């Protein structure tokens, strides 16, 4: 594993407690009848999606760090991949959570655009990494 992969993997792992806190927040919202969480199905769905996307994409970003070591890509694009996948986890998750912050929200706020930006960054990152892996000489 390269120094870059170790450094970014370490940083990514340090962010895991934020995902844990998200799970704790969801659990306490479910348990507290006064939170209003159970009265807003759209908010429930957005919060669950935000939490799930964060966890899954963080795992993917760790895998991508190791795969990036084997890819044949220009250095700037390699760094875009290394940073883009974990950044996508942050943006997508933030978009789900921040777009439904008020307990009485009936539709997402403008923060929902973070989901689309994160999804685009994720797609470009993983496709670039895939191409970089295919380009490795046999």
What does this molecule look like?
- The protein has 138 residues and is mainly α.
- The protein is 74% helix and 0% strand.
- The protein has helices at residues 3-14, 16-31, 41-68, 75-98, 113-134.
Q: Supply the helix-strand structural class.
A: mainly alpha
Low-confidence segments, given as residue ranges, are none
Any idea what the shape is?
Answer: elongated
Question: How far from one another are the termini?
Answer: 20 Å
Question: Over all CA atoms, what is the radius of gyration?
Answer: 17 Å
Q: What is the percentage of strand-forming residues?
A: under 5%
Contiguous helical run count: 5
Helix content percent band: over 70%
Instruction: Report the count of strand segments.
Output: 0
Mean pLDDT rating: 95
What order do the SSEs take from the amino end to the carboxyl end, as H and E? HHHHH
Please give a quick description of this structure.
The protein is mainly α. It is built from 5 helices and no strands.
From the structure above, extract its key features.
single chain, 138 residues, mainly alpha, 74% helix, 0% strand
Helices and strands, with pairings:
Elements lengths: L2 H12 L1 H16 L9 H28 L6 H24 L14 H22 L4
Helix pairs in contact: 1-3, 2-3, 3-4, 4-5
